[in-house]
Design goal:
Length: about 80
Amino acid sequence: MEKSLNEFIVGETGTVKKINAEGKIKRRLFDMGVTPGVEIKVKKLAPLGDPVEVTIRGYELSLRKAEAECVLMEVK
């Protein structure tokens, strides 16, 4: 099953399938280690869903809701 990272709930894990962004947002995500094939686990969600705190490659990362929408995930 596929869905974007912003649709995940706390504790859900998945694998990045594709980055649906261009330009600065895509480059920013790649620079932070969000690349196809990497596993991401959602740790915390702010009350309004922005930001999303995730664990990726052994560290904690906060993503804006707009950035999380660009990350297409395969649910585990």
